[in-house]
Amino acid sequence: MITVMDNSNRIPWTTSDILEATGGVLQTGPGDCVFSGISIDSRTIGPGDFFVAIIGDAHDGHNFIAGVLKKGVRGILVGEENTGASTFEELASGGHVVISVADTTRALGDLASYNRCRTPLSVIALTGSNGKTSTRSMLTCVTANRYETLATAGNFNNAIGLPLTLLRLEEKHELAVLELGMNRPGEIRRLAEICRPDIGMIINVAPAHLEGLGSIEGIKRAKGELLEKLNPGGRAILNADDPNVRALAEDAPGEVLLFGISDDAAIHASRIREQGNGLSFLLETPGETAEVMLDTPGRFMISNALAAAAAGYLLEIPLPEIKAGLERFKPVSGRMHIRELSNGTRIIDDTYNANPESVKAVLDTLQQIEKQGRGAAVLGDMLELGEQSAALHREVGRHAALTGPDRLYLTGDFALDMAQGARNGGMDTKRVISGSKQKIAEDLIAWAGPQDWILVKGSRGMHMEHIVQELVNTFGQR
Fold it and tell me: Is the pTM of this model over 0.85?
């Protein structure tokens, strides 16, 4: 008799589904159980779920098996080298389903891939050095009225996060918009194998994760892995303004749609203008145009908007709906999120992550919008740049000098390199201040006034959001 362990909107799993998806071995238990979903989290797992004991950076799921069994879980997937025969015998006596595999993390991806193929879902997979999350957010705004869309949540864009997203799939979903992240060769290829994209989008190629990829050419090749794994008949969306991305068109197996401000881009932006704290531009698609107003001051966000519009165009969404979706977009917290304090100071909170090109872009933005008041740039280290770290921090410092903020605050192991770059670029040393995040926050609190702008940015590991929070806690937010 087949028994469903729990009631859920997720697509249920049978023991045979799991065996087929993973190629695992049924060590104990009945072959006709049905589970409501797949989980790797012992804290939130429900009694009807099937538990996959993955080995992560901080925790080994095998250490939590006893706890999930106490919650009533009846099925687990384990690594064949992590559980001995005596454990199998003990679990067999309780009627539990136990499946063993060589690699539980890979099996999680295999389960997600199997799940992706169980519905007639269309998948858009996007990658890039900068702007993945903003582009994904814009695209979900564009598709929301026409398609029931499953999208990456937070930073679930790696070998564990992407499968977890696909394992949230429900019968109602018609479209998935998925981010693919990486810091090593082969990671994008594996993620694309899992999600099997119908549309593959590459937003840009910039110095990021050089520690694992070595060079811009290495990053380009790694991003290009996405195109290798497009479904038959799959289409590519590429940035015409980025020479490294444009070059990947030669390797695309099918149709290529270019976006950008370049003249030959099919999805094109012109008449770009600043409008208060936002931007307007003319969106041009083959045969149609529309004026679009973006609720963000970052000109680089237009590229993200064009990428989202290109996907909407391939999905045959009418241009007025694409325009409306882009205009619904609100910057995600930590990504060009403007916070206005009660004293009139405005913060550009771009603290989520950083690499050299993204830092230069937001420094340009600060220069553009800092009109009546003063501007301060607060920069933390850019991580994972390998042997080029010092040189790239000096390069960003020089760019900061060119954009001319009234004050340049620097923190981290490479603060001196950025300061040297700023001095080499001609910036007055009195305007360059290095120190801890706490000291920088204290100085900003004493300095900031009405109509001033403060840009805060650094790599995720630098926790630059602490400076933003100190300012918000002190002044309050409108």
Answer: yes
